[in-house]
């Protein structure tokens, strides 16, 4: 559920007034110690189309009123974001995606779980050393979650090589004192691509399934700040969002201790199933995915190229509210 095809907002990131257990895979770790720079790889356009402002279209799909966060000023946002370490964020960049060293196994067909965890650990290490290029925002999807209902602060960085796309999410609520670390690794050597999700705990990466799947049925979500001024480096946010939007179709990895939840009824309405289908660009959506569906449709991000008609909204609302 990704798109950047929207009208341009005002310049974001300035005042507008008023996502483990360490596993040592020696070959990969040796490759990872070589310097990695945000400027490695081809130069990317630093002026991608900006992300549209997050404004509810009043569809009635949201379970709670949309949050506007009027008390959360840009100054408070910037100060809260800097608490992760000001040297780690708002860094100069040329390529929004940090290039990782080549994988040490030639013609690899399927990363091992140890290799996946090592990629995750490396992403955290690069961030901690100030060698990543994270965007910083208050996230629309997480902030609008019914059980949170408060600003959710995110630092998001992207990394890649020929075998993997790696993402790091450093996150906390506005009232938490410490930051939590999460990571996604997309194994590009499999068909279809396989997505691993994990929380990076002190003892190392811990794969997660059930809790992440409800919002990430098709992999990483595009960047959607909750308010257009609550983002540091808007061009970087748009560039990483575009990188996410260009991801291949993928399937979700479920560890034994976090199995796939009951997905519920599949979404077969033609205006959604045109892309979200067995043979579509993205995976089938089910009732378990109701939260991101409600938010992304209400805020006009889905479908990507138009707004739903009133009668289509009514069809979708009836499907979301259907009880078996």
Structure overview:
The protein is α+β, with helices and mostly antiparallel strands and 324 residues long. It has one domain. It is built from nine helices and nine strands. The protein has helices spanning 26-32, 74-82, 113-128, 140-143, 210-213, 234-245, 270-273, 290-298, 310-321, and strands at residues 97-99, 135-138, 152-160, 164-173, 180-187, 193-201, 204-208, 231-232, 250-252. Strands 1, 2, 3, 4, 5, 6, 7, 8 and 9 form a nine-stranded mixed beta sheet that branches. The longest helix is centred in the middle third of the chain and has 16 residues, at 113-128. The chain is globular, with a radius of gyration of 19 Å. It starts with 25 loop residues before the first helix and ends with a helix. The model is unreliable at 1-44 (pLDDT under 50).
Helix and strand composition category: alpha+beta
Sequence stretches where pLDDT stays below 50 over 5 or more residues: 1-44
**Cα gyration radius (Å):** 19 Å
Percent of residues in beta strands? 15-25%
Helix and strand sequence: HHEHEHEEEEEHEHEHHH
Average pLDDT taken over every residue: 84
DSSP strand tally:
9
Largest sheet: 9 strands, mixed
What general outline do the C-alpha atoms trace? globular
Number of helices: 9
The total domain count is 1
Helical fraction equals 10-25%
**What is the first-to-last residue Cα distance?**
25 Å
Protein topology:
Layout: H1 26-32, H2 74-82, E1 97-99, H3 113-128, E2 135-138, H4 140-143, E3 152-160, E4 164-173, E5 180-187, E6 193-201, E7 204-208, H5 210-213, E8 231-232, H6 234-245, E9 250-252, H7 270-273, H8 290-298, H9 310-321
Parallel strand pairs: 1-3, 6-9
Antiparallel strand pairs: 2-3, 2-8, 3-4, 4-5, 5-6, 6-7
């Amino acid at each position: 559920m990704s798109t950047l095809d929207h009208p341009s907002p005002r310049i974001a990131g300035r005042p507008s007034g008023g996502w483990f257990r360490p596993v040592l895979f020696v070959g990969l770790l040796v490759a990872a110690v070589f310097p990695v720079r945000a400027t490695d790889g081809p130069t990317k356009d630093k002026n991608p189309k900006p992300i549209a402002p997050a404004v509810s279209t009043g569809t009635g799909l949201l379970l709670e009123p949309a949050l506007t966060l009027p008390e959360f000023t840009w100054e408070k946002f910037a100060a809260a974001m800097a608490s992760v370490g000001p040297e780690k964020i708002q860094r100069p960049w040329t390529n929004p995606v940090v290039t990782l060293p080549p994988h040490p196994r030639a013609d690899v067909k399927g990363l091992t779980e140890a290799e996946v965890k090592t990629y995750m650990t490396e992403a955290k290490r690069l961030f901690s050393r100030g060698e990543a290029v994270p965007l910083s925002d208050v996230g629309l999807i997480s902030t609008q979650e019914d059980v949170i209902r408060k600003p959710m602060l995110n630092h998001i960085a992207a990394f890649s090589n020929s075998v993997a796309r790696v993402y790091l999410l450093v996150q906390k609520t506005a009232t938490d004192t410490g930051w939590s670390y999460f990571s996604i690794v997309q194994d590009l050597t499999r068909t279809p691509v396989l997505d691993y999700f994990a929380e990076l705990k002190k003892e190392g990466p811990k794969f997660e399934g059930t809790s992440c799947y409800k919002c990430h049925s098709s992999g990483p979500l595009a960047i959607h700040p909750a308010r257009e001024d609550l983002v540091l480096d808007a061009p970087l946010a748009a560039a990483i969002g575009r990188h996410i939007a260009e991801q291949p179709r993928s399937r979700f990895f479920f560890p034994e201790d976090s199995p796939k939840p009951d997905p519920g009824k599949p979404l077969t309405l033609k205006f959604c199933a045109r892309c979200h289908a067995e043979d579509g660009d993205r995976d089938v959506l089910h009732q378990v995915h109701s939260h991101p569906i409600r938010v992304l449709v209400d805020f006009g991000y889905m479908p990507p190229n138009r707004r739903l008609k009133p009668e289509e909204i009514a069809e979708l609302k009836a499907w979301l509210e259907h009880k078996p």
